[in-house]
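Intended use. Records like the one below are meant for learning the mapping from a protein sequence to its folded structure. Do not use them to infer anything beyond what is encoded.
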Amino acid sequence: MTLRDIMIVFKACRDRRLFEHDQRAWLAHTTAFLTAYAPQKSREFPKLKIIESKKSEAPPAAATKNDWRAMLDKARAWVKGKS
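Structure written out for the chain above:
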C-alpha cells in the first residue's frame, strides 16, 4: 500500500465513525425526547447539534497541504523510529 492508500483508508474509517456517532446521537436524543416527562419543555431540552460530530470544521491549512516531500519525510521518520 502506498501512503495515499493508507490516508484514504484512515479517512474512510474516520468518516464511518463520525457517521455512526451521529446515528447513535440522533437515536439517543430522539428516544430521550419522546420519553421525557410532560413538565419538561422542548425549549429546555438539549439541542441535537450539541451532541453531533463537528464535521463542518475544516482541518488546519497545514494539514490539508499534500506536499509529497513532507509526507515522505514523515514516513522515513516513522520507519526510522520502528527500527
